[in-house]
């Protein structure tokens, strides 16, 4: 059993030593089995912990991925909105900047109120021209009143240039804020174009008023001696009718 040839030459000590070694080996084997079982238990526990960590990591990764995707989509929406705003103001991509965009918005903010001012001023100018029409056959006071009206118009024009205001901001957190903002900008842009037309018409009226003053002064010089006074006065009256019609048409278009 011990792989020892038993004969007279084998000593008792060697035999006992072999038995002791077997007993020790048996005890060591039992110890190894216990340790192996313990290691297996620990290994299974570690594997479960690793799997749990992997599950947590996967869940965290999916959650982070969703948040990242949401941030990317939100950023894309904001970039799209900025590009659409830049397009409204005809700002090229290579020249687009936050300051330029804000400046364009600030310039457009004043247009709506300026447009209303121009409407009021043109209505006022129309009334004044009507009054001038009645004063053409009067004395020197007609010319003085006309000059006063022209000076008032210049002051009003300067006042309009100094008018600036802001419109109420639309909160970015409101539902449909992008559409509201684009709609407001589109309205301001349209108003600005209409305002430019009124400015051009106003400039024409000023030029015609200047010509009218010159004609009135000439008529005053020729009032006693010229036989053509009536004809010239009638010509001025017709000219004012055209201006009145132009302003009426302009008021109709603006309304």
TrEMBL record:
Residues 33-57 have a biased composition (Basic and acidic residues). It comes from the Eukaryota. Residues 181-222 form a coiled coil. Residues 33-72 are annotated as: Disordered. Keywords: Coiled coil. This is Uncharacterized protein. It comes from Euroglyphus maynei (Mayne's house dust mite).
